[in-house]
Amino acid sequence: MTIPLYHEELEQEIHLPGGQTLLLRPIRPEDKRAYVKLFESLPPEDIAMRFLSPMKALSDSLATRLTQIDCRREMALALVDKCGSGETELLGVVRFSADPDNERAEFAILLRRNLTGIGLGPMMMRRIIECARKRGIKEIFGEVLSENAPMLKLCGALGFRLERMPNEPGVTLASFHLRNPW
């Protein structure tokens, strides 16, 4: 496992309509506890939509894997809020993981339900697509449960090609060629 150098240039402040300021930044190994807390706060259906199966708990090894990325093939951006206590609250994560040749990368996004519908999901997806494009990745894709209408709508709005996976009923493949302009 390679611990990445921190990419400060990827930090972006996000100002919400009510005046709250969030920060979108590369994920850090010290976000592990906050990632577990985010997972524990999610309804079971949101967990199933993100991980493509129901999960009751986030194992320690998976939490480590999700917060200690291999910087040669991955990028993960965390949406965080600094709580009054100084503790970081993780509100969402968007990521990609590329194949060994850095040709194709699978994306995933997780955002707390109370923050959907205000443009954060599309903004996070655009940022991770740009990170993949700058890396030289040619295509980004994700497997989306067919009942995950909000994610399918988001992918469609961003110009992803959506097609049912013939060998996996109930799963839609969303793919986007990174040479495509918006």
Search tags:
single chain, 182 residues, Aminopeptidase, 8-stranded mixed β-sheet, globular
Brief description of this entry?
With 182 residues, the protein is of the alpha+beta class. The chain has five helices and eight strands, in the order ββαααβββαβαββ. An eight-stranded mixed sheet has the order 1-2-3-4-5-6-8-7, with helices on both faces.
CATH classification class: Alpha Beta
Topology as a string of helices (H) and strands (E)? EEHHHEEEHEHEE
Distance between the termini: 34 Å
Number of discrete domains? 1
Task: Provide the spatial order of strands within the biggest beta sheet.
Answer: 1-2-3-4-5-6-8-7
Q: Any guess at the CATH architecture?
A: 3-Layer(aba) Sandwich
DSSP strand tally: 8
Fraction of residues in helices? 25-40%
Number of helical segments with 4 or more residues: 5
Q: Give the biggest beta sheet.
A: 8 strands, mixed
Radius of gyration: 16 Å
Which fold name corresponds to the CATH topology? Answer: Aminopeptidase
Structural class: alpha+beta
CATH superfamily: Gcn5-related N-acetyltransferase (GNAT)
Stretches with pLDDT under 50, minimum 5 residues: none
Query: What is the 3D form?
Result: globular
Q: For the residues shown, what is the average pLDDT?
A: 89
Task: Tell me the fraction of residues in β-strands, as a range.
Answer: 25-35%
